[in-house]
Every structure is written in structure tokens, then in C-alpha cells.
């Protein structure tokens, strides 16, 4: 999983103790708690509730196994030891005093681990010392070493005074100073974030909360200001509104109109100083224009900055009079420009007030697909950066360019025996990876823009290769007919991403002594560029000489090497790769432990490198037609195998994991059944025999559907796959390392398997358990039996294991071990005669895996969407949901077809629509890629706007503006043929028409996804599938890297095109890279979640705080996983009643999500909703509403109104509006929520009952009792049918009905009285209730899935005991959970919605 979006660990699940799901009857049974989503996934051994408020089902598991990447890191005695180690890290901090020139001494809290350098950073950020960069810190007159840790400094203790002493400048220091001052001047300017440079990105939260939440909460009078709140949302946010404006996406922040401090600050043309001036200490010259229009020339000298007498045209370096010599440029400018002094001070005040998360750099660049028109101002540093190959702060690093390969490999070699070492190692690995990704991206853009000289300039452009900044770049074309048999350019385009997945997989296994290359894949301007670090010495020798393992010609010549076999053998278990032999050109058998293309090269540094990992995972036979091979019946029925563009289609690692897990369950079942049989034979009671043999024989015939059935039975009895298998069977303990590469929690193997009604087995899951007494004991027996290595077991049991191994296709006969041979069906690879039987087995295994994908994983995805445990909102989250279950995106058409045939299709409409949008925009992206390759740079904006017009605009004859070229006459420019890779006729793009483009899209959808779009224009598509053009625009822009101007576009005008070339602002790269993980932090995070699940909130909270510290230690302050951590902490704070703390943590989570994932990413929308709830609880009602409106706006933009999640947003908005007595508005939102809930959950669901109740309450407040009664009756009926008369909810509802009836009668009486007696009637005062905040908050908690149970201490103890008892039961696999996989129920009386 590599792409940016791909590994959002968004859903590190939110758990809270009573976030539980009820088991009502019928429909209610699948309803999570108030949110439609907190079902506990049974299939994941860890059994924590994956609260998909994170949009993607059990994303928790995406990284689950990148956990312990290294086999031995658990060696230190598991959890306890790591908890003690943590204490080592946090030595207590102490306080020191700091005295800077011209300021009062101030206190600073430091920790003994910090380096002196970190104090420097703090001083450079503080408001009163930020203008200093060139200084040393002195303790009692001794200068401190920058790189020393504080604890190693003699005499430094609590209360020591450090002096800041100004040091003389050097050229380097002067440059750093100017750069720092420029950064301070630009600190509020968002242009870097819009331009996607220096890891800046956007955040708009502060606009909606008016600054920092913490303060504003304290400043405002709480709760009293109801009257002044203006609650009316903008028109476009109201339910049913059809307009989808773009402009509100990036509201303009008033702070961003920066106060101008200077007009110009740039390098002077008199640089560099001539020799005689150098000897006077001149370092460089600056040219400055102040706001008062004063032009000055400044000398940077070793002593500081002063005015000289030069002008634009005469050079006079003598100091001016007065020269204002100052050590800092800011001090100098403050003396010569009053406006500078005033504005700089207020700018720094504002800068320091911003939340740090708004300004810290993100680890990887995030790009924005829209941007306002930003003024392009003069900027010396930017100009200089553009022309020097600065990466990071290159010129400050000794030795100039970085040796990326050395850095990447050395960090891997760092020791990792204990926690502090592992943290250092992981931090170094992460840092160097994010630097490398940034450098590679910059280089790839330079290559495509033509700014890098090729290393083989004589060859035609598509064959060229480049080296820049110690990184090797190659283009994704099939240059030497390398991939001719595999699909030419299509294969050459797919190979880099496959290779990257391989690098990620081997990197996660992390075997000592085996090295992979730093790899980044960049798509830019229609080209795919692979950037790799360079193996030392590879450029001096021919490839043939250096490869000592694998094959350079796809298996014609093959060599092997003992050391490589030994290293690769360590990876073969976790990656499920089978050792196998192949024949080389001399017909000799050669042993390999990877695919043949995987090459081993020993670098000049003596390290063993492997590269070309494009076939790490086995081929996907559904997309690889092979002559004479039949797929299983089920695959064939769905139209497989299908022809694909290339022959490199392989299964995803997640699928392999899920498949193996499924087979493991099958294996345990079979062993248990056979043991039962033996027992039964002993009891000479042979009656069950036939039935059982039938089951145990079933899978051997390799029919996927029968296997699949058995799987379904298996999963109903809850052997939590990974957990139990690992805890009960050391034999699987070997597997637990294997799983460490990604435990198999991605594909819930749950009863969905049998969804296609293919159950042919005589015994269905449940009856199986009941019909065979003592199965559980047999299971345990089977497990003990499997644990031993097959020796010391009586022959009978050995036979049992043997049969079970045979049946599931294990490669060992004494224990369960499934592996794949990645070379099967590779063209050109031949196997020795004696391996034929084995090869047959491997082929069968591959067919079974392909069938498993189609018959288990696809239905299970659809089932998860039906019960709302997976809720994709846009293309990225949909892709992620597919990937978690091991389904490749090329199956998108198949998935949509499956949804189309599902009887429950109306309840999957949102999923279907998102799928169609994804499919269409991906087809458009494929076409756009080749379209762009034919465009020369000067026509890029015209070409992109023309393409978007053809794609989205209703204007029928979109004609490209072939710009009357700004500079030259048409005739001349014909001759100068620009050498663009693949450039032919450079104006061919202009002839594209909308109808032709849509024909191509339909053809692409048919040939690539096997999906029929019978539409000839964008309007037909929008009409047929109910899409929004703005959503299509967002998806295509994000996928291709287009950035467009932020303004309203009229897509539907039939008179003029929607886009002009002025609307295309930029084109960004789309980058895929490896994501190194923080394994220890993740362990803490998981154990914290587990504790929370068991109801130990305090302990859980501590563990999660610890995880947060470790994450910060490895990733720095900004990372998606930290975001998940903060979200969970906030939720725990909230449950434990600490509302302000919840608010502060959730605010950080929102800021981080905006910065790291993007301002309109589905996760960000979720975070906004959580924050709104905590704001409301803190009495900040207007803020809560603004946040909810923002969430609703983003949701409308990203996927439209018709989505189950919209019901939740609308219920929240409706409740808050009810609270501030805006009844009519409130009804609009609540009734919309009711409609959506009814559509997606069925009219009889508990969710709908709750919606009815909320609507009834608003009608009651309006005194419209008839409507209120009508709604409450609906709700009552649902509760009665679902929960029965005696249930608490049913009783509550009936009480409320009585109350409403009384009120209605009283009102009627009063009315009659008035009619009868006219104005002098004696009227009884009616009770009109404005709802109390507490009652509103209670309802908000319920719909958001948070439930507080008022418990006494004793109840709590009992509860914990009960939970533990259940967990023990579960581990014994005795409690047969209902097939829903419902979580533990704590309190049966609370029917949660």
C-alpha cells in the first residue's frame, strides 16, 4: 500500500467502553451505536471495535502488521519490558534561565535528552528572540556544543543561567539569517501552501473557531449568548439545495492579508564582494525597499548588517552615515523604517498566537487542487532556491549533495535491541524517507520539465535516464522491449508501482543484512518517473556482471547465490513465498526464493541489495488468461479470466493474508472434525461418519465454492484468527512473525462468504456446532496436536494433521504453512520435471486464491457497506476499503456489477455512485495521461483547460484556444520542434471533442474494468448515475495533480465552455512512496485500545498518551497516525468528563487532519463533527454550529447529499438548532436525516425510530402536537416490534406518547375555551418547553455513539469482572457468537441505536 491516500490509518478505531452495538432483533441487529458505525469486527483477532467514523472499515488493520517490523524486536520480553523502558526515556525535565541581549531573563523548561541545538530552535521561534540566528549559548563563560545533550553538560542544572552571545557571521550564517528573516516575514502568508512547497499545507479551522478554541471558550460568557447567535446557514448548506459552490472551500482568512513590512528584500547585483572588500569583512550585499519607498543597500559583514553607500548603478561599499550597524537585520530595519518596526511586531504577535499545528511542516507534501489568485511577490530566497539544487538546506550540509543510498541503508543498520534504540532507529528511517521522497519529487519534476541532462543524451527521449542529486530517474516506458511479452508500455507503467509494493513489503519484514533501494514513483505531466537510490558501483559495471542472483532476461538465464537464499529464506514465511527451483538456459535446476526477476546485486559497499521486486506477490489468474488452464466455476461464472492490459497483474498482500487466514480456520476445523471422528469410532458409534467425511473431503476437489462454504462455517465459531492462532499454537508462532508483516486482519472472512447462496455443505455453521457435541474440546485437541512439530504424536493424530494439510494445500505435511510460488505462469520460466506435482498444487492454490477474492472478499466488502461498518465517501476512501480486503482496483467493475445484482441495491446507492465516479475519473485519467504527453510546455494550461471542458462542460463544441502564441508567429514555431519525450504533432490535443472523449471513456471502462457506461456525454452520465460535476472535477484534479482557480464554474452553460486557460494554475506531481512505521508506538496504541475495550479507561488513557509520545518521537509532530491517537484521546477525555481537554485534543486532531490529509478529506469531515460535539458540551454553541455547517458543506462537495453519513451530520445540526430554539430550521435538517436513515437503514430500523423521536421533540417545542404524536407513534411501533413491549425504550416511548396526548388535549381545551368565550376566556397557562441543554447533549451523545451509563463503583467492579469473564470465554472459543459478530454487550437494557 503505497499511495499517499492509501495508508491513512484513519481508522485507528475509536473505541469507547460502551460504544457497543446491541443485538436487537431483525434489522436493529446490525445497527451500530448511534453512529452507524461501531461494530466490533469479529474477524480481526484483536477484536477491537473499528469505529469507522474513520470512513474506512477496519482500517485499524491496515497497519496492523507493519507493527513489529522486525522479527526480533519482541525479544525483549514483550509488553512489560517495553513499558519499563519507556520510563527511561522520560527523565524528568528541569528549568533553566536564559538571558538574551536586550531582554529580561526568562525561564525555559528543558529535558535532559534535548540537544543544545533544540534550545537554539526555541529561541529562533520566540517572539522576542526570533530575529537572532547567529549566536552561541554560554554557561559561566563556556560555549556549549550545539550537538551535546543537555545531560552531558557539566554544571547545567535546575536554575542555571544561559547567556545568549552574538557571534560573528560567515557567508553561510549570513545566508541563514536572511532566509530566516524572510521566513518570519512570510509566516502568515499561505502562498507556499497553495504552491505546494516546503511541506506547507492549508488549514482553515481557526476561521471557524475564531482563533484558538481554548481561549475563546474562556473569554465568552458560556451559554448566555443564545439570543445573539445567528444560526442561519448559508443557502447552499440547507437540505435540498442544488448549488455546490467552490469558493467557500477555501475561505479567505483576514490575517492572511499580511501587513506589509518591506516592499523588496533581495540580493544585490553587486554580489559577490570583490577581493579587497572581502578583506574588510564584507560577506554579501542586499537591496531593500522599505514601505516608505526608501531604497537602501545593505552590507552583511562579519560584525552584522549596516547601510552602505551603493546605489543601483554605482558601487560604493563604504558605510553610510549613520550606518546603523546591527547584529540582526531586523534591528537595522526597525531603525530605518517606522512602518517595518510597527508591522513586524504585530506580525510576530499574530504568528506566535497561531496554533503550532498550523505552521509545522508536514512529513510529506500535501497539494491543494484549488487555490485563489495569489499575488506573485518578489522573493530573493525563492528565486535563489529555484536556480540552485538546494534540497532541504543543502548548502548547510558538509559535502553538499546527500548520499541517499548510504543514508537509507545506514539508518536500517542502527541497533534495535531496546526501546530507546528502536525509537532512534525508526525516527532516523522515517526522517530520511521523507527527505528522500521530497528530493525525488523535485528531481522527477526537473527531469520532465527538461532541466536535467540525461546520462545517455544520444538516445531518443523516451529511452533517456537521468541522475540528479545522487538519485537515478527512469521513465515508465518499455524502452528496450524489456516488457514486450508482458504488455509493453502498459506493463512498464504498472511495474514501478508493483516494485514499490515489493519494496514496502520487504522493508516491513526488515531482515537484517538484506537491503532494498529507496524508491519513489512520481506521476507528473502524463509521465511516470521512477526515482531510486543508487547502488554503489553499479554504474561502473555492466548489469550482467553484477547480478549474482535472479535473472536479467525474465528467466532465460538464471543464477543463484547461497547468501541470498539464506537472507530471502527469512522473508519467505512472512511474505508467503515458496522456495522453488527453475531451469536455466543450460537446463540446470537453480534454487530461488523469490520471483526470477528479483535480482541480487552486491554493491561496492559489500551490502546485499535486491531490486526489481515487481513480482513479490503471486499472479492474479482472474486477469491472466493462460492457455489450457481452467479457473474455478465461480470465477468463470463471473466472466473470468479476463484479458488485461499487461501480464503483471498480481494479488495484493492483504488478499494473501486473508486467504491464508481463511485456510487456517479451515485447517483447524478439519483437524477437529477428524479427531471427533476418531473419538466417535472409539465409542464405536459410527453414525455421524458420513456427514463428517463429506465435509472434510469437500475442499480437496479444489472447488472454490465448497471451500468457501466451509470457510463460512469456520468463521462462525469465533476462533479469532490471528490472536488465537498465535496464542494457542506456537506452530503459528512462527507465523506470528510472518504475520508481522501485516497480520491478516484485513479481509473479514465472515459469513458474507456464503452470501451468494452457494452453501452446498451438509452442515451449516451453527448446526455444525450443535450437531457435534464436544467440538470445542476436539478443537483444543487439534490445536495441541498442531503445535508439536509432528514428532511425538501418535500416528493416528499425525495422519489427521496430514489429511488436513493436504486438504488446505499446505506445503508442509506436519504443520499448517501455505506459501505461493510467484513464478508460476511467468512467460519464459521453466520448472524441472521432478517439481511438476508441486507446480500443479501451486497452480491450484493460485486458482483458489483468485476464486476466494471473487467469492469471499467482494461479497464481504458489500456486506460491510450494507451494515455500515465500511463507509467510503470518496474515491480515496473507496480505494482504501477495497485494498484493505485485498481487492485490486481493477476489480471495480466486478464490484459494481455485484452491487447492481444485490437485492439490497437501493441501500447501496451511495456506494454504487462513488464507485461509478471513481471508475469514470480513472478512465479519464488514463486518457489524460497519453493526451498530456503530446503537449508542449507552452500550451499546457490551454490543453488542460480544453480537456476539462471536454470532460465536464455541457458546451457541445468545446474548441481549444490555440493561443495566438504570445510570442512568435505560427510559421516560425512550426520549425522549432521542441524535443518533448514522445512529442509528435504538438497540437493534436486541440482536436479532442467532448463526444470523442466520452466515447473513449466508455471504451476504456469496458476494456479495463469490463463495465458498460452507455452514455455519450457528461450530462447523460450525471443524469443516469446521479453524479455531481463538482465531485467529478475534484476527483479528476486530485488524481492527475491539476490545480484550478478558486471561483464558481458554470458547467451547465451551453453557450460557453466552463474553463479558460487562465483557470489552470498549476500541475502537481502525484507521488507514491514507502511509509515507514513506528512499531512500538503502535503496540502501545493497540494495547491502549484493548484496555479501553475492556472498560479500563484510566489505564487505556495512559497507554494511549504513551503511544502519542512515542509517535511524536518517531514521526515528529505531524502524522496521520498521531491524528488517530489524538482523536481517541479526545473521545476518552470526553467520556471521562474532561470536556476542555477533549476539546483541546480534538482541535489538534482536526488541524492535523487538515494539514496531513487535506482540508476536504473524509477524515477531516469526521474530525470536524467530533469537534462540534465537544464544543457544544463546552457551551460554545455558535462554534459548534459553524463546525457542523463546515462539515456539511465539505460533505456536499465530496459526495453529495445522498449518503448515510449525511443523516448523522443533519441529526447533529438539527439537535443543536433545536437547542437554540430555531425550530423551523431544525426540522428541515432532522426531517432530511429521517429520510436518509429510512432509505439506508430500512423503515423499521432503530435508527429511524430515534430520528422520529427527535423530530417529535421539535414539533412538541413548536406546540404542534398532532405532528409530534404522529412521529412518536411511528417510533413507538418500531421499538415495540424490534424490542418487545417490556423493553425500556418501548416504555419510554409510550410514556412520551401519553405526555404528548395530554398536552394536545390541554391545548385543544384551551382553544375551545377561546372559541366559546372569546377574549375573556380563562386560559390555563400551557407548558411550552424550550429544551434544556442537558437533554440536547444527551441526544447528541446517543446519535454519535457515546453512551454514559450511570454506574456506582460496585457496578463498575462487577462490569469489569463480567467483561473479563467473557473475554476468557471468548479466548476458549466457547461462546458461539451470533453470526452478526456482535461485540460484548455490557448492559442489555440500553437499546442503543
From TrEMBL:
Protein keywords: Cytoplasm, Repeat, RNA-binding, TPR repeat
Main location: cytoplasm
GO molecular function terms attached to this record: mRNA binding
Region spans: Disordered: 1-83, 215-250, 682-761, 1370-1393
Composition skew (Polar residues), residue ranges: 705-734, 741-758
GO BP annotations, alphabetical order: intracellular distribution of mitochondria; mitochondrion organization
Basic and acidic residues: bias regions: 60-71
Stretch forming the signal peptide: none
Limits of the Clu domain: 382-624
Subcellular location: Cytoplasm; Cytoplasmic granule
Gene3D superfamilies: Hypothetical protein (hspc210) (3.30.2280.10), Tetratricopeptide repeat domain (1.25.40.10)
Entries under HAMAP family matching the protein: CLU
PANTHER family in the cross-refs: CLUSTERED MITOCHONDRIA PROTEIN HOMOLOG (PTHR12601:SF10), EUKARYOTIC TRANSLATION INITIATION FACTOR 3 SUBUNIT EIF-3 (PTHR12601)
Annotated family: Belongs to the CLU family.
Functional summary from the UniProt entry: mRNA-binding protein involved in proper cytoplasmic distribution of mitochondria. Specifically binds mRNAs of nuclear-encoded mitochondrial proteins in the cytoplasm and regulates transport or translation of these transcripts close to mitochondria, playing a role in mitochondrial biogenesis.
Protein name per the record: Clustered mitochondria protein homolog
Amino acid at each position: 500500500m503505497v499511495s499517499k491516500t492509501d495508508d491513512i490509518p484513519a481508522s485507528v478505531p475509536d473505541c469507547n467502553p460502551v460504544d457497543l452495538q446491541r443485538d436487537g432483533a431483525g434489522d436493529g441487529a446490525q445497527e451500530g451505536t448511534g453512529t452507524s458505525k461501531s461494530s466490533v469486527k469479529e474477524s480481526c483477532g484483536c477484536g477491537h471495535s473499528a469505529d469507522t467514523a474513520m470512513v474506512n472499515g477496519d482500517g485499524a488493520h491496515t497497519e496492523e502488521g507493519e507493527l513489529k517490523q522486525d522479527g526480533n524486536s519482541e525479544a525483549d520480553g514483550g509488553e512489560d519490558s517495553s513499558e519499563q523502558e519507556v520510563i527511561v526515556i522520560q527523565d524528568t525535565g528541569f528549568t533553566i534561565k536564559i538571558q538574551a541581549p536586550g531582554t529580561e531573563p526568562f525561564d525555559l523548561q528543558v529535558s535532559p535528552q534535548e540537544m543544545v541545538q533544540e534550545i537554539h530552535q526555541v529561541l529562533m521561534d520566540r517572539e522576542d528572540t526570533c530575529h537572532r540566528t547567529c549566536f552561541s549559548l554560554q554557561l559561566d563563560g563556556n560555549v556549549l556544543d550545539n550537538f551535546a545533550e543537555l545531560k552531558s553538560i557539566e554544571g547545567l542544572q535546575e536554575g542555571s543561567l544561559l547567556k545568549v552571545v552574538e557571534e560573528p557571521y560567515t557567508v553561510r550564517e549570513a545566508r541563514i539569517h536572511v532566509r530566516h528573516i524572510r521566513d518570519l516575514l512570510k509566516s502568515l502568508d499561505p502562498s507556499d501552501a497553495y504552491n505546494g512547497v516546503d511541506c506547507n499545507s492549508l488549514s482553515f479551522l481557526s476561521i471557524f473557531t475564531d482563533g484558538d478554541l481554548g481561549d475563546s471558550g474562556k473569554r465568552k460568557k458560556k451559554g448566555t449568548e443564545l439570543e445573539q447567535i445567528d444560526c442561519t446557514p448559508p443557502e447552499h448548506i440547507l437540505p435540498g439545495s442544488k448549488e455546490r459552490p467552490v469558493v467557500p472551500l477555501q475561505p479567505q482568512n483576514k490575517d492572511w492579508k499580511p501587513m506589509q513590512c518591506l516592499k523588496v528584500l533581495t540580493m544585490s547585483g553587486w554580489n559577490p564582494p570583490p577581493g579587497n572588500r572581502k578583506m574588510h569583512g564584507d560577506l554579501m550585499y542586499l537591496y531593500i525597499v522599505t514601505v516608505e519607498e526608501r531604497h537602501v543597500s545593505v552590507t552583511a559583514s562579519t560584525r552584522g548588517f549596516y547601510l552602505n553607500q551603493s546605489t543601483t548603478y554605482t558601487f560604493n561599499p563604504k558605510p553610510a552615515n549613520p550606518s546603523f550597524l546591527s547584529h540582526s537585520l531586523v534591528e537595522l530595519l526597525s531603525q530605518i523604517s517606522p512602518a517595518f518596526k510597527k508591522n513586524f511586531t504585530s506580525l510576530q504577535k499574530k504568528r506566535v498566537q497561531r496554533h503550532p499545528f498550523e505552521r509545522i511542516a508536514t512529513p510529506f507534501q500535501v497539494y491543494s487542487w484549488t487555490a485563489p489568485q495569489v499575488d506573485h511577490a518578489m522573493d530573493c530566497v525563492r528565486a535563489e532556491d529555484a536556480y540552485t539544487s538546494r534540497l532541504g538546506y543543502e548548502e548547510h550540509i558538509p559535502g553538499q549533495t546527500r548520499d541517499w543510498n548510504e543514508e537509507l541503508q545506514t539508518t536500517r543498520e542502527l541497533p534495535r535491541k531496546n526501546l530507546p534504540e528502536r525509537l532512534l532507529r525508526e525516527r532516523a528511517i522515517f526522517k530520511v524517507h521523507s527527505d528522500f521522497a521530497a528530493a525525488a519529487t523535485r528531481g522527477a519534476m526537473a527531469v520532465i520539465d527538461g532541466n536535467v541532462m540525461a546520462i545517455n543524451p544520444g538516445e531518443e527521449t523516451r529511452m533517456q535516464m537521468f541522475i540528479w542529486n545522487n538519485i537515478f530517474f527512469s521513465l515508465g516506458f518499455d524502452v528496450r522491449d524489456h516488457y514486450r511479452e508482458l504488455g509493453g508500455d502498459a506493463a512498464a507503467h504498472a511495474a514501478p508501482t508493483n516494485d514499490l509494493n515489493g519494496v514496502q513489503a520487504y522493508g516491513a519484514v526488515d531482515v537484517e543484512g538484506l537491503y532494498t533501494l529507496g524508491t519513489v514513483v512520481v506521476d507528473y505531466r502524463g509521465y511516470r518517473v521512477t526515482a531510486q537510490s543508487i547502488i554503489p558501483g553499479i554504474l561502473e559495471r555492466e548489469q550482467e556482471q553484477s547480478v549474482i542472483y535472479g535473472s536479467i532476461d525474465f528467466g532465460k538465464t538464471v543464477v543463484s547465490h547461497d547468501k541470498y537464499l539464506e537472507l530471502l529464506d527469512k522473508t519467505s514465511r512472512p511474505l508467503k513465498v515458496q522456495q522453488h527451483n527453475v531451469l536455466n538456459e543450460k537446463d540446470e535446476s537453480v534454487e530461488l526464493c523469490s520471483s526470477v526477476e528479483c535480482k541480487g546485486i552486491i554493491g561496492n559497499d559489500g551490502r546485499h541489495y535486491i531490486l526489481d521486486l515487481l513480482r513479490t506477490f503471486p499472479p492474479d489468474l482472474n486477469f491472466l488468461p493462460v492457455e489450457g488452464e481452467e479457473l474455478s466455476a465461480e470465477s468463470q461464472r463471473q466472466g473470468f479470466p479476463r484479458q488485461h492490459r499487461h501480464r503483471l497483474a498480481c494479488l495484493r498482500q492483504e488478499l494473501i493474508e486473508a486467504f491464508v487466514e481463511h485456510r487456517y480456520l479451515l485447517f483447524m476445523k478439519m483437524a477437529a472434525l477428524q479427531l471427533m471422528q476418531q473419538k466417535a469410532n472409539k465409542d464405536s458409534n459410527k453414525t455421524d461418519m458420513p456427514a463428517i467425511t463429506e465435509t472434510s473431503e469437500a475442499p480437496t476437489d479444489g472447488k472454490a465454492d465448497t471451500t468457501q462454504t466451509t470457510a463460512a462455517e469456520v468463521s462462525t465459531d469465533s476462533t479469532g484468527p490471528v490472536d488465537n492462532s498465535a496464542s494457542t499454537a506456537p506452530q503459528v508462532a512462527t507465523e506470528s512473525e510472518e504475520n508481522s508483516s501485516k497480520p491478516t486482519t484485513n479481509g473479514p472472512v465472515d459469513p458474507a462468504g456464503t452470501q451468494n447462496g452457494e452453501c452446498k455443505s451438509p452442515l451449516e455453521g451453527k448446526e455444525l456446532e450443535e450437531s457435534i457435541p464436544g467440538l470445542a474440546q476436539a478443537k483444543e485437541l487439534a490445536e495441541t496436536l498442531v503445535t508439536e512439530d509432528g514428532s511425538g504424536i501418535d500416528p493416528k493424530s499425525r495422519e489427521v494433521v496430514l489429511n488436513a494439510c493436504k486438504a488446505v494445500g499446505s506445503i508442509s505435511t506436519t504443520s499448517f504453512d501455505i506459501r505461493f510460488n510467484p513464478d508460476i505462469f511467468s512467460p519464459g520460466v521453466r520448472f524441472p520435471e521432478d517439481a511438476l506435482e508441486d507446480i500443479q498444487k501451486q497452480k491450484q492454490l493460485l486458482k483458489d486464491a483468485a476464486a476466494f477474492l471473487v467469492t469471499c472478499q467482494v461479497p464481504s466488502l458489500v456486506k460491510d457497506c450494507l451494515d455500515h461498518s465500511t463507509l467510503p465517501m470518496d474515491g480515496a476512501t473507496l480505494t482504501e476499503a477495497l485494498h484493505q480486503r485485498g481487492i485490486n482496483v481493477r476489480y471495480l467493475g466486478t464490484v459494481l456489477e455485484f452491487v447492481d445484482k444485490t437485492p439490497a441495491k437501493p441501500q447501496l446507492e451511495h456506494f454504487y455512485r462513488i464507485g461509478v465516479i471513481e471508475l469514470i475519473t480513472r478512465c479519464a485519467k488514463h486518457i489524460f495521461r497519453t493526451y498530456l504527453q503530446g503537449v508542449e510546455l507552452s500550451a499546457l494550461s490551454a490543453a488542460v483547460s480544453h480537456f476539462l471542458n471536454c470532460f465536464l462542460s455541457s458546451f457541445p463544441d468545446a474548441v481549444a484556444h490555440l493561443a495566438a502564441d504570445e510570442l512568435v508567429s505560427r510559421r516560425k514555431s512550426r520549425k522549432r520542434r521542441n524535443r518533448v519525450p514522445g512529442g509528435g504533432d504538438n497540437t493534436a490535443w486541440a482536436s479532442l471533442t467532448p463526444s470523442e472523449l466520452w466515447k473513449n471513456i466508455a471504451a476504456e471502462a469496458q476494456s479495463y474494468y469490463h463495465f458498460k457506461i452507455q452514455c455519450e456525454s457528461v450530462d447523460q452520465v450525471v443524469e443516469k448515475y446521479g453524479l455531481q460535476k463538482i465531485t467529478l472535477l475534484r476527483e479528476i484534479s486530485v488524481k492527475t495533480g491539476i490545480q484550478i482557480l478558486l471561483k464558481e464554474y458554470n458547467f451547465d452553460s451551453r453557450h460557453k465552455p466552463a474553463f479558460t486557460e487562465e483557470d489552470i494554475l498549476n500541475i502537481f506531481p502525484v507521488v507514491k512512496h514507502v511509509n515507514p512505521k513506528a512499531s512500538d508506538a503502535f503496540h502501545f496504541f493497540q494495547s491502549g485500545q484493548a484496555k479501553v475495550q475492556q472498560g479500563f479507561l484510566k489505564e487505556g488513557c495512559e497507554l494511549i498518551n504513551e503511544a502519542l509520545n512515542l509517535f511524536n518521537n518517531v514521526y515528529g509532530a505531524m502524522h496521520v497516525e498521531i491524528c488517530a491517537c489524538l482523536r481517541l484521546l479526545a473521545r476518552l477525555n470526553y467520556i471521562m468528563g474532561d470536556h476542555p481537554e477533549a476539546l483541546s485534543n480534538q482541535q489538534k486532531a482536526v488541524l492535523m487532519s487538515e494539514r496531513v490529509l487535506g482540508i476536504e478529506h473524509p477524515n477531516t469531515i469526521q474530525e470536524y463533527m467530533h469537534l462540534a460535539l465537544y464544543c457544544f458540551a463546552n457551551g460554545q454553541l455558535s462554534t459548534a454550529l459553524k463546525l457542523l455547517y463546515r462539515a456539511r458543506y465539505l460533505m456536499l462537495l465530496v459526495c453529495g447529499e445522498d449518503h448515510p453519513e449525511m443523516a448523522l451530520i443533519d441529526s447533529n445540526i438539527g439537535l443543536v438548532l433545536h437547542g437554540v430554539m430555531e425550530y423551523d430550521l431544525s426540522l428541515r435538517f432532522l426531517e432530511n436525516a429521517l429520510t436518509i436513515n429510512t432509505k439506508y437503514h430500512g423503515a423499521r430500523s432503530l435508527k429511524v425510530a430515534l430520528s422520529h423521536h427527535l423530530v417529535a421533540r421539535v414539533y412538541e417545542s413548536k406546540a404542534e402536537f398532532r405532528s409530534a404524536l404522529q412521529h412518536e407513534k411511528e417510533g413507538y411501533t418500531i421499538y415495540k416490534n424490534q424490542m418487545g413491549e417490556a423493553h425500556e425504550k418501548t416504555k419510554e416511548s409510550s410514556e412520551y406518547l401519553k405526555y404528548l396526548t395530554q398536552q394536545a388535549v390541554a391545548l385543544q381545551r384551551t382553544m375551545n375555551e377561546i372559541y366559546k368565550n372569546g377574549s375573556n376566556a380563562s386560559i390555563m397557562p400551557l407548558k411550552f418547553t424550550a429544551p434544556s441543554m442537558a437533554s440536547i447533549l444527551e441526544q447528541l451523545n446517543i446519535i454519535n455513539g457515546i453512551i454514559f451509563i450511570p454506574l456506582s463503583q460496585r457496578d463498575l467492579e462487577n462490569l469489569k469482572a463480567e467483561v473479563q469473564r467473557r473475554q476468557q470465554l471468548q479466548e476458549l472459543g466457547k461462546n458461539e457468537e451470533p453470526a452478526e459478530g456482535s461485540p460484548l454487550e455490557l448492559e442489555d437494557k440500553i437499546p442503543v441505536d
